[in-house]
Amino acid sequence: DRPFETYELVNFYHFLGRWGTAAMLEEWRRAHPEREVADGLRWGKLLAGFGEHEPAWKILSARFPEPGFHDGRSTRKAAALEIEWRGDEDNFLKARRLVGALDREGDAARRDQVTLLMAAKENAPPWFLERAAYIQARAAHYGEAVATMLRLPEKP
Question: What is the pTM for the complete model shown?
Fold first, then answer.
C-alpha cells in the first residue's frame, strides 16, 4: 500500500473519464475515501461528464460552501443602488452591494435574478458564481449548478 504517484492518478482519471462509468467512479470513491479532499473537484467533473449532476453537485457543494453577505450591511436602499448599478452593469462591486440590499429588504427573487445575471458574465468573481450555483441547485437545476461551480478557479 504505497501512495499513488501523480502520473498514475492523472492517467487513471483521464482514462476513467474517457472509457469509464459513474459506477466505476463510485467504486473508486468507496475504496479511496482519503482521496476526497485532493480529488473531490475531479470527482465532481467526472460525474458531470457522466451526466450524474446531482451527485456531482453534492461533492462540489461540500468543497465550495455557499457564501454569505459580508458587505458591511449598508443601509442604502436597493432602489438607489440599482440606479447606480444600471449605469454600470458590468461593475461587480455595485452589483454585489445591490444584491446585499435586495437580500436585506427581503426581495429574494430580484436578488437571485441579479446574482444569476452577474454570474453569467465572463470573468465573474467567485462570490457570484458560488451564489448562482446554489440558486440553481435550490431550483433542482443541478446540471446548471455544476456547470457554474466548475467555472470557479481551483482552490489549493
Answer: 0.88
* Contact indicator for 124, 151 with CB cutoff of 8 Å: yes
Q: How many CB atoms lie within 10 A of CB 134?
A: 21
Q: For residue 151, name the pLDDT band (cuts at 50, 70, 90).
A: very high
Report pLDDT digits (tens) over 11-20: 999 999 999 9
CA–CA distance, 82 with 110 (Å, rounded to integer): 11
According to the 3-state scheme, what is the secondary structure of the chain? CCCCCHHHHHHHHHHHHHHCCHHHHHHHHHHCHHHHHHHHHHHHHHHHHCCCHHHHHHHHHHHCCCCCCCCCCCCCCHHHHHHHHHCCCCCHHHHHHHHHHHHHCCCHHHHHHHHHHHHCCCCCCHHHHHHHHHHHHHCCCHHHHHHHHCCCCCCC
